[in-house]
Write a structure and sequence with these properties.
The chain is an alpha+beta fold and 526 residues long. It contains 14 helices and 31 strands. The two termini are 39 Å apart. The chain binds guanosine-5',3'-tetraphosphate.
Length: 526
């Protein structure tokens, strides 16, 4: 096997997603602990944008700086190289999360045993389903009172619309929680609450081993045997191929805070999770094992220091080997560029790297050359697909409040849009600029950054809109008729494409019924 194939085969690039508070940060931290990437629990905590921070913008700004370092966490675990891509916890940054999901090969979903499937998890799962991303589910907080595990499995299946297959099973829950039986490996882990250390493992031969009775008592051992029998009866044998094609989600139980059930998850994960997968470009499918380098920008992070308007562009390596100082083509501009200081993200530290492989993320310092979705190659004309913008749901007119600074405002808006902070539309009727976001927080972020990074001042004017959708039609006359009828509600996006701004769900439905020849799209990629 070539060195390239070796490097690809040992890589696992994934994201952990959850509804805020289910335990994503805690689980991430425990995985890093196992990888020896950090030495004490609590080290990742500060990465999180607390859900209470709806208007505490300074706090977010502070945390944004920290989150550059923790956006990607790479570490070695045995022979494997693991890359965890962080996703923002706050739902107002959901768009960031969607984009991050385009750069991972699989996902771990964390669910709180007491709360079950929550709203944000449901939404993120939809994105995974769209892309057939393989998913593993970790049911967390078993040390607390929660729901019956069978009930949770049913709910996961119904709410996440995916078949599930338990690969570990809890012995009791809450105060009586005694441990997790590892179905995947036929072993038993006993529960000794400990936030720093890994729990104790009892070696057993199979589920009838009397050492289980000795460890947890006969009553619980019997209950476990009954449960396992039921599982074997109800759920088909676990098949890795079904997991890899996104048909079945293996489920693990545990307590991230107590480092319980985490190693079972990690050990199984490295064995079954996909290696970097082929990526679809507009022109063709690119296989990671191809000699020539290719990659795309999935995230741009602005510098914290307002005096240096530099950013870091996060590039996911899709094929070949990325090398420092090698000439690469920036496909959108046609320019050839060399990168003298690309960084890798190992153990929360940024280091300059000489090379990177498919599955890896490279941070490239940038001063405004990159846009989200840009492709870099060894020379081939490629455009990676799959970085859609979703229809925003909140809209405001943006107004300049300092006429002397209109150029700065213009530039600031352009660059923030390139970073993917929000979407810009221009109303075709009155020429006014509209910013569309998925959450209130973005408006604050934009206003703050325009002032502090560009010296421009803006004010928001309310705009009551339901949804912006991209429209197209094969019938030019029908399209013209639609645009004429709805001229007050027509806008263009930054690429000049037609966007219909529906002011209510009713209006949107009526428009869809009245104009059957028009196609309405709810994401920018169609
Ligand atoms: P998030 O990133 O998904 O938002 O969740 P995070 O890991 O921050 O966890 C949310 C809360 O749940 C934290 O408590 C955390 O300590 C707790 N938690 C995580 N895993 C477990 C578990 O297995 N069992 C129990 N009982 N609790 C768990 P917090 O009070 O919000 O934060 P902190 O003050 O403890 O840091």
């Amino acid at each position: 096997m070539s060195q390239l194939t070796d490097e690809i085969n040992r890589r696992r690039t994934f994201a952990i997603i959850s509804h805020p508070d289910a335990g994503k940060t805690t689980l991430t931290e425990k995985l890093l602990l196992f990888g020896g990437a950090i030495h004490i629990a609590g080290a990742v905590k500060s990465n999180k944008i607390k859900k209470t921070a709806t208007s505490d913008w300074m706090e977010i700004e502070k945390q944004r700086g920290i989150s550059v370092a923790t956006s990607v966490m790479g570490f070695n675990y045995g022979d494997y190289k693991i890359n965890i891509l962080d996703t923002p916890g706050h739902q107002d940054f959901a768009e960031d999360t969607y984009r991050t999901l385009t750069a991972v090969d699989s996902v771990i979903i964390v669910v709180d045993v007491a709360k079950g499937v929550e709203q944000q998890t449901r939404k993120l799962m939809e994105v995974c389903r769209m892309r057939n991303t393989p998913v593993i589910i970790f049911v967390n907080k078993l040390d607390r009172e929660g729901r019956d595990p069978f009930e949770i499995l049913d709910e996961l299946e119904a709410e996440l619309k995916i078949n599930v297959r338990p690969l570990s099973w809890p012995i009791n829950i809450g105060a009586k929680f005694k441990g997790v039986y590892n179905i995947y490996e036929n072993s038993l882990d006993l529960f000794t609450p400990n936030k720093q250390k890994v729990s104790e493992r009892v070696e057993i031969d199979d589920v009838n081993d009397s050492r289980i009775d000795d460890a947890v008592g006969t009553q619980d051992a019997e209950k476990l045997r009954e449960d396992l029998e039921l599982i074997e009866g109800v759920y088909p044998e676990f098949d890795t191929a079904d997991y890899l094609s996104g048909q079945v989600a293996p489920v693990f139980f545990g307590s991230a805070l107590n480092t319980f059930g985490v190693k079972e998850l990690l050990d199984c994960f490295v064995q079954i999770a996909p290696t970097p997968r082929p990526v679809q470009a507009e022109e063709r499918k690119i296989d990671p094992t191809e000699e020539n380098f290719s990659g795309f920008v999935f995230k741009i992070h602005a510098n914290m220091d307002p005096n240096h308007r530099s950013c870091i562009a996060f590039v996911k390596v899709c094929s070949g080997k990325f090398e420092r100082n090698a000439p690469y083509k920036h496909v959108r501009s046609g320019k050839v560029m060399k990168f003298a200081a690309p960084t890798a993200f190992m153990a929360q530290k940024k280091n300059i790297v000489d090379e990177a492989y498919p599955g890896d993320i490279v941070g490239i310092p940038d001063t405004g050359n990159f846009k989200i979705g840009d492709t870099l190659t060894s020379g081939e004309q490629l455009h990676f697909k799959g970085l859609p913008s979703f229809s925003p749901e909140m809209f405001k007119y943006i107004e300049n409040t300092d006429p002397m600074k209109s150029k700065q405002l213009e530039k600031g808006i352009q660059q923030l849009m390139d970073e993917g902070v929000a979407q810009l539309f221009t109303n075709q009727f009155n020429g006014r600029k509209i910013i569309g976001t998925v959450g209130q927080l973005q408006f604050e972020v934009i206003q703050y950054r325009l002032l502090h990074e560009y010296g421009a001042q803006c004010r928001w004017e309310p705009l009551s809109m339901f949804k912006a959708c991209w429209i197209e039609s094969d019938d030019a006359e029908a399209l013209a008729a639609f645009k004429k009828r709805k001229h007050q509600f027509m806008a263009t996006d930054r690429e000049g494409r037609d966007v219909f701004m529906a002011d209510s769900n009713y209006v949107l439905q009526m428009a869809q019924a009245d104009f059957p020849k028009i196609r309405f799209h709810f994401s920018s990629e169609f």
